[in-house]
Design goal:
Chain lengths: ~110, ~300
């Protein structure tokens, strides 16, 4: 796959206090560091090691990931929203890259 | 002294009764487990909107009464992944394939989109009708071969190496444009009938040290277990398929070769005449099922 590309699904609107479902997926090989190439050398580990979701600057969900997580990690979770604002998602790669995306939600 | 053996005899009797009861329970369970390996009664509705045909009555001359998609043989979780186009990891490759479709490559300075402008309209139904006869080459072509022909002749680009990441993504994108459309192989064109016959012969020919033909597993034992996994009818309407085991798209010829390898036999080259004939025949066996690409399997 080409560069890791995050995809996020957040409802555009919600009622105040509603519990919404957020789905996230990022394309990433999640190279475990356990495999060997044709010449018997270890393929260096390269995984997404941390995922964070913030809402208006406050962390609502975060997790560390380890080498056993499959390629293209999919994370789904629920969050309660009381006000309109912005969800900010970030994935931290072993090589230091951070992949980010944002989604707005309007609370009525 | 006397009571001992009698008591023990009584225990034996009780134990035997228990064993018989356990055996009966096991037999009942056994039937249950057999059912569990069979097709699950469920409907594939993608995103709650789009129902895909996963069961159809078989046409005359087909070995089965009913043709059933491999989707029915998978676990609840795997089936759910395919039913949600967001969660389906194969959709990442559809997106990547669309990028490739629009990317200029080769000396002619063209992309796929340069000639086929409206991908959605042009490609609708195409994926459901391959493999199809290619008169110029004098053999059936699948999507991969068609892409390579276009690249060489029209784009003046190099053909893809078998299972190159871009080949799989582009094939997935193209077949996905026919999502839900019934698989249909036209056997009246050219020598398709002869290729079908050859494919059928291969399907029933035992290979490898384990001496297995495709039919031994997928015709005789579908619905039962092969080690810890369920055997399906082996229909190919969802290829290229996202296999959780590989965390990757898996092409049909890769799967063919994997199956033949597992019989401990020498496997033919991808796109060889043998595997093309097998593709024609196996695709025909799934006639009428909706295209599921990218299907999700374990």
């Amino acid at each position: 796959m080409a560069d890791p590309k995050p995809r996020v699904k957040v409802p555009k609107k919600a009622a105040a206090g509603e519990v919404i479902t957020i789905k996230t997926l990022i394309s990433h090989p999640m190279e475990s560091g356990q495999r060997k190439d044709k010449d018997g050398n270890l393929v260096p580990r390269q995984i997404i090691n941390k995922f964070t979701c913030e809402f208006n600057g406050q962390v609502v969900f975060t997790c560390d990931m380890d080498p056993a997580v499959s390629a293209n990690p999919y994370v789904e979770f629920n969050a309660k929203v009381n006000e309109s604002g912005t969800f900010k998602f970030s994935w931290v790669d072993d090589d230091g890259s951070v992949y980010e995306t944002e989604n707005e939600i309007t609370v009525e | 002294m006397f009571q001992g053996p009698l008591k023990s005899g009584g225990d034996d009797l009780a134990n035997n009764m228990k064993r018989i009861a356990a055996l009966l329970a096991a037999l009942t369970l056994g039937t249950g487990a057999g059912m569990a390996g069979g097709p699950v009664d469920d409907k594939l509705v993608i995103d709650g909107e789009r129902e895909i045909t996963t069961r159809v009555p078989a046409p005359e001359g087909h070995p089965f009464d009913e043709i059933i998609s491999g989707w029915h043989y998978r676990t609840d979780e795997t089936r759910a992944l395919e039913a949600d186009s967001f969660a389906n990891p194969g959709m990442l490759y559809v997106e990547r394939g669309e990028e490739i479709w629009n990317t200029v490559e080769g000396d002619a300075g063209k992309s796929c989109a340069s000639c086929h402008e409206d991908a959605g309209a042009f490609l609708k139904g195409i994926g459901a009708k391959y493999p199809k006869w290619n008169a110029e080459a004098g053999k059936p072509f699948n999507i991969e071969l068609q892409i390579d022909q276009c690249r060489e002749k029209n784009m003046q680009a190099k053909p893809y190496k078998f299972d190159a990441a871009d080949q799989k993504a582009l094939t997935t994108f193209i077949k996905h444009q026919s999502l839900g459309m019934p698989v249909e192989v036209d056997l009246t064109e050219g020598d398709m009938q002869a290729w079908w016959e050859k494919g059928k012969e291969l399907y029933y020919t035992r290979t490898g040290q384990l001496n297995l033909a495709c039919a031994n597993c997928h015709e005789d034992y579908n619905g039962t277990y092969i080690r810890a996994d369920h055997l399906s009818q082996g229909n190919v309407n969802g290829f290229p398929t996202y296999r959780l085991k590989q965390s990757e798209m898996v092409s049909l010829h890769n799967r063919f070769r994997g199956c033949i390898r597992d019989t401990r036999g020498a496997f033919p080259a991808a796109f060889s005449d043998d595997l093309m004939a097998l593709e024609v025949y196996v695709t025909w066996r799934g006639s009428g099922l909706g295209v599921e690409t990218p299907a999700v399997r374990q």
